[in-house]
Amino acid sequence: MLLGRHENLGAQKRLPRQLLLFLLTVLSLLLVIVLFPMTDSARGQAVALLGIVITGVIALSSTTFVANIMAGLMLHVVKSFNPGDYIRVGDQMGRVTERGLFHTEIQTEDRDLTTLPNLHLATNPLTVVRGSGTIISAELSLGYDIPHKLVEELLKQAAIQTRLQEPFVLILSLDDFSVLYRVSGFLSEVKSLITSKSLLKKNILDVLHEHQVEIVSPSFMNQRQLQPEHKIIPRQDKKQPATSADKETRAEEIIFDKAEVAAQAEGLRAEIEKLELQLSELKKTRKAADKEDYEAIDFQMQIAEQKKQQLSAELEKLMQNGEAE
Questions:
Q1: Coil, helix or strand for 230?
Q2: d(CA 2, CA 20)
Q3: Lowest mean pLDDT segment, chosen from 115-119, 200-204, 218-222
Q4: pLDDT tens digits, residue range 189-209?
Q5: Distance CA 278, CA 56 (A)
Q6: Under a CB-based contact definition with an 8 Å cutoff, are residues 82 and 106 in contact?
Q7: What is the DSSP track for 238-251?
Q8: Helix 11-35 vs helix 40-60: angle between axes, to the nearest 10 degrees?
Q9: I want to staple 93 with a disulfide (CB 3.0 to 4.6 A). Which of 84, 88, 114, 243 is the partner?
Q10: CATH classification number, 76-128, choose in 3.90.1720.10, 3.10.50.40, 2.30.30.60, 3.50.50.60
């Protein structure tokens, strides 16, 4: 019943209620044993039997069941990530769609849902992409005949076209036949992480080819005998518009639809909690205030209550649409 009355609560918000329900179940069993008419010796044996059963269950499932519960509690307390965040654990990467008592669900780049045990998250290195922004990069090799200053300038230009802030270029290695460069920049809108990575590579190709800088590997050059004046650059179609980040945002909308709903729902729940706290404070203030201040306080409470109802309706509609999809 405790869970059924709060259908709009996410798995993370239901976690304390699940623990409370479990504790109430154990206490109810103890209460039944105490109140049931029986001799003291029989009651003592029943309590001992219940204790043995609970201890046995915990002992038999401690490696998975209890361990996942403890890991889930730890992740809940630490709050290293929230629904909608990008996380990476080993080979798994995606956006968080749900946090539960036993597992965490993520939506991968294939739009599939992957369930990760909380114990796995707690015992393995966990990378969380910060919502305030992250650094994205792209690497490529170019020949020694191209001045590195020119390469750095062009790569920064490509990063700026991708709308990356404060771009910088690093030389990673000096190989036998080429120089390995890495261009990086700060991406403030992490929701377009995948699209921006692809867009950065597209812009690198466009910028280098526009400035007659060919991108070829040493093996490609060794396999074909080319004249020095021959450039391996594709022809530019002037009819096609330039690549724009605004036209590429559809990829994340398709891939991370459930994760986006989870992120929006988490934001609405946070706003509702703030309003509930505000209403509670206003009620306390009203009790201690003079009668002439009642009207102003009641007006503030009315506004907060209306806003809360509006957000609750938006949350309910969002959850219904998410379940329908």
A1: coil
A2: 9
A3: 218-222
A4: 888 888 899 999 999 999 999
A5: 46
A6: no
A7: TTSPPP-GGGSTHH
A8: 150
A9: 88
A10: 2.30.30.60
100-113 core/surface letters (b: 16 or more CB in 10 A; e: else): bbbbbbbbeeeeee
Greatest alpha-carbon span in the chain: 103
More confident residue, 26 or 197: 197
| CATH number of the 134-245 domain | 3.30.70.100
What pTM was estimated for this model as a whole? 0.61
Q: Please, which residues have CB within 8 angstroms of residue 84's CB and are 6 or more apart in sequence?
A: 95, 96, 259, 260, 262, 263, 264, 266
54-79 pLDDT per residue, tens? 777 666 655 677 778 788 888 888 88
Q: Who contacts 7 (Cβ-Cβ below 8 Å, separation ≥6)?
A: 319
